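Honest question from a wet-lab person: if I give you the sequences of every part of a complex, can you actually get the arrangement of the whole thing, not just the pieces? Trying it with mine:
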Amino acid sequence: MSETAAKGLRLTIREALLISVAATILGFAYTALTQKGIFSAPSPTPVLLTSDEGLSPEMIQIEEAQELFGSGTAVFIDTRDELEYRAGHIKGAINIPLVEFDTRLDSLRALPGDEVLITYCDGTECSSCIEFANRLYSAGISNVKIFFGGWEEWKASQLPMETSTP
Amino acid sequence: MEGQSASHGNVHAMKKLLRNTCFILALRIVLGLAFVVASLEKIVDPDAFGISISNYKILPAFIIPVPATILPWMELLCGLSIFFGVLVRGSSLLITTMLLVFLFAVLSAMARGLDITCGCFTQDPDAATIGWIKIAENISLLCASLCLFCSGEGSLSLDHYLRKRTGEDPALPM
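Yes, you can. This is the full assembly:
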């Protein structure tokens, strides 16, 4: 490489570094000033609705989820989207993404009354299972529990799972 | 021999094109505007951009706020630099790197069957999902960026004007 070309390359890298540093400073300064993005107040944990009787869907730990799974009296509802569900889910779980709640509500009402409905999604990063359980509660279905550890915890514990083909 | 001379001809034509002031200016306007426009919505709503990044399921959640904070500003600064013709080679180097990363992200999301929006120009979750059109768009921008990396800012640029005024040699070949 000629000396001129090497000089040109060094200058190019210097320019790129200069822009990167400026972008980093501006990005953090702007988000700090506007309290957005990385500096925004943490979003509140989704709250459970409280019914008129003062009850709300119960959050359960993996031990109880496993116990209910073993008892065969629970229906697991996977509230993630169809692709994620197909890639892997709790064995026997049905897939009802939150957006399909209204259209699938009747099929859930048709389930035997002694069945416990357990909603779950990805894990603690998602909240669609809580929203789903809240809506079930509001629709008058009270035998609902939330497995908040979700798919990630179930998979990590290597409990029964399956995949589905379209 | 014929093949060699045809290839020489192509190289010569390419070099000529990269010295064409109007061509370089057109590339700078298109690429600069594309990046400035792409950055604005992300700057205004870094949270929505963070969601777009997380949809690709490539980065762990705790890292996502960092690119969501820095990338939009990098796009804006690079876009403005390219548009006005300042620090063009450095900007085009960064734009090329960003486009390669975006290309990888889109291709890997397509390969994994993710039905997601790009999050490139708009954070609207109802926008069209990623596909081959997005790949073609990224490759076109990548070609433009590589051309500018090779050609530099051209004579119709702020950098050229400033160098001329300060008496510096405006042409610094690679």
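Two things worth pointing out. The mean pLDDT of chain A is 84. The interface with chain B takes residues 4-5, 7-9, 11-20, 22-24, 26-28, 30-31, 36-38, 40, 81, 83, 125 of chain A (CB under 8 Å).
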